[in-house]
Amino acid sequence: MSVLVYTESEQGKFKKTAFEAASYAKALANQLKTHVTAVSINANSADTLGTYGVDKVLTVADTTLDTFNAKSYAEVIQQAAEKENAKVIILSSTANSKFLAPLLAVGWNAGYASNVVGVPESLSPFKVKRSAFTNKAFELTQINTDLKIIGISNNSFGLMETNSSVSSESFSPHLSERQIEVASIDKVTDKVTIADADIVVSGGRGLKGPENWGMIEELAEVLGAATACSKPVSDLGWRPHSEHVGQTGKPVASNLYIAIGISGAIQHLAGINASKVKVVINTDPEAPFFKAADYGVVGDAFEVVPALIEKLKAFKAQQ
Q: Measured in whole angstroms, how far is the alpha carbon of residue 236 from the centre of its chain?
């Protein structure tokens, strides 16, 4: 028996969420007194997973899987779990994993708990702590099935280096015929993605227009951050919808979230509430966002942000 973890990758490189999922799998395996097996699909350097506690990697090399397909990927993971006699599968909370989870739960006849933020509180019965009500509360969920799927909330467990001795094994699952084919994907490749970013710099209508977005991008570049925006900004066409964060956009669970000129509507707060440190810059001291902020600056973004960029550049120059 083992704990199986699906380690997501993109263009051959493991995502940060893969290492967090592996770290969680190792902690759970220690509780269960077993080992960790990872499934790696078309990724390079599988040995790096050993740093985060993986004992064995099933490497799948199949060009037909270069583009994510939920049904095919679910087949790979389920067959890997059956091969390894796994009782628990660990997933992250990325968009792809959320597509996979229900397919795996049905196909593998397993119970599924999403948004898990810690290792099980108890093993018998099997109870895990998970966030609820858009990260405003926590609940204990009991999984009664013999087979279990756990989706860990992004950036909730962290990366734990344990340096296991890892072995690799080629794995060739049987895939059923595809019913959907992806013709093409257009993706920005030279920027930090919101899903993988430790820092996110986000702008709202307080910036007055798309022509003022240069300072958002400059601040993001200095910090090595991803850029994002509020829903009204994307609706107005100032920024692409791919940058819209919030309850109706992309969820953010970064270590640092900087909101500039965003009032803090409840839908926006719900989508970024999992971020660990929130910094708000706004001219309105009554803006709702200040109630959720860890740090707040009441001031004109057109004065505060350039000054912040200057200070950060000076600080980095001293390093």
A: 27
